[in-house]
Structures are given as C-alpha cells and as structure tokens.
C-alpha cells in the first residue's frame, strides 16, 4: 500500500525523534515507511532532500552530525531539547475556537506547509480535532459556517445577532446574545451566553441558528467561570433531552447499535418474533431516533416518554410520505 507524503513526513519525524544517535541516510531509508517505493538510491536521496527541506521550513529542528554507521560521514536526528514545546494551557474559549478553526482548515485545501505542520502535530501525538474521548467536529457545512462566526464572537468578545427556530416551532425568532462559550456536547454544537433581551443566560443549538451576524464589541454582563457556564449548558440539555434508562425490545438479527449500547440483554419473544429486551441508558432524543429507525424491528417499552417520542417520529415520517 502506498504511503502519502504527509504520512511519510510523520514517519520521518517519529523515526528521528525516537533516537539520540545520528541515523545515516541508509538507515533512515530502511526504517521509514514511505521510502521503500524508491527504485534507486538517487531517487531516494532526492526525496529525502525534499523532505528535510520541508521539515526545516515548518520549524522542525533537524540536526546533522556524525553517524555511527560505518563509512557514513553524516547522520540526522531531532533533538528533544529543541523540538519539545513547553506546556500549553488553553481556556475553554480558546479550545473551542481552535476546534472550529481546525475543522474549517480540514474543509479547505492543504498546502505543503500545512502538511508539514500536521506532520509535526501528529508526531507529537496531537490531533487538533479531538479533545479527550470526544470528537469535536462540525459535519454540516451550514452549521460549520455558523460555528466559525460564533467562535469569532467568543474570541473577540463581540455580541451575536441571529434567528433561532426552537424545537417544534415553524417560525424563527430574532435573538441577541453576548456569547461566553461554544463547543460540543453529545455530538451537538452549542453556544452559551447572556441573552440581551431576556436579561438571563441562555443556550442555543447551532443547527437551529440562521442569519447569524456579529454584533457590537464589549459586554454588559460579566462572564461566569467556565465550570458554571458548562453547568448551565448541561442543565439546559437535561431539560430538553434528559438521559434515561430505558427498556427496548429488538428483533434477532437487527439493531446492532442498540445492542452495543445495552447494559443488560434478556432474550424475549414479542409480537410473534424472537428477540431481546435491552436495558439502555442514553439521551432520550437520540435513543428515540435509533428505535424509530428500526421500524418494526424495535419497540420502545419504557419509559412512557421514550414511547411518545418514537410515536412522534414515526407519525411525522408517515405523514411526510403521504
């Protein structure tokens, strides 16, 4: 399988960073995946020279010295003292802005310099769009555009003006906020801030926002500590989409995702079919969507709120195809 240029650069950085000795060109050729496709030594040397130049262009400290390999006058390594960065501490606002920026960058064309920067980050074990175990990404292009504006407003301390369509509503309502924080929870993007018209904190799903515009700079209300802001967000999500432990029946051979989420499984025959009762703990909205997507191969048994949500989804789908 062929190795991309960016992956080859990552491999080269990892190889040269993992040793204190100077490695000869021949040693590097044998150790770094990506050089094995070179048919001649001349082709390898040309590629290696280009790679060294690109690494140096993006600031990777490639050091040259005497190699231990017999008959080889030069070797290469990346010294830890010059390559390692001091510890970097980001505020929640800065991390949110970087997450959005990295996603925007991934949507565009990557330059050679960007590829080199990615090589340096990846070799250091950093993925710019992952935070712990949570993937930070904005998939929808419209939501991505909104996320970029919201992140800019948070970073610059500017207000936001937008139209917001609440769940179940058909008409948008004009809103104005001073944003405090933006980021993801359970795969959805939110903004939390001070609502200028309500005079109180409010939380909004980015996907429900449209016609977003940057407002005036400055704040009329103090920004709470990040922990308090995130507590407000979690409380708002819990009101709209509470996490619950539910019982769901699924037919044999179906609903693999629901089965994977189950903390307990009891083989049960229902509706004249073999299957299992699953105990699943998850946000009700996501769980209802999963059950509804299985059609006759799954059924919500408890709690009543889950059954109601599944019926609402299936009723809407039936009406849409009439």
- The count of DSSP E runs of length 2 or more, i.e. the number of strands, is 13
Summing up helix and strand content along with how strands pair, one would put the structural category as: alpha+beta
Shape: flat
Output the radius of gyration: 27 Å
Helix fraction by DSSP (H/I, runs of at least 4): 40-55%
Estimate the mean pLDDT confidence: 79
Strand portion: 25-35%
List SSEs in N-to-C order. Answer: HHHEEHHHEEHEEEEEHEHEEHEH
Number of helices, where a helix is a run of at least 4 consecutive DSSP H or I residues: 11
**What count of domains describes the coordinates?**
3
End-to-end Cα distance, whole Å, is 49 Å
Briefly characterize the structure.
The chain is an alpha+beta fold and 322 residues long.
Architecture blueprint of SSEs:
Layout: H1 5-17, H2 25-31, H3 41-57, E1 63-65, E2 75-77, H4 80-83, H5 92-107, H6 112-123, E3 130-131, E4 134-135, H7 141-156, E5 158-164, E6 173-185, E7 188-195, E8 200-205, E9 209-217, H8 226-240, E10 243-251, H9 256-261, E11 264-270, E12 273-283, H10 284-293, E13 298-302, H11 304-320
Antiparallel strand pairs: 1-2, 3-4, 5-6, 5-9, 6-7, 7-8, 10-12, 10-13, 11-12
Helix pairs in contact: 1-6, 5-7, 10-11
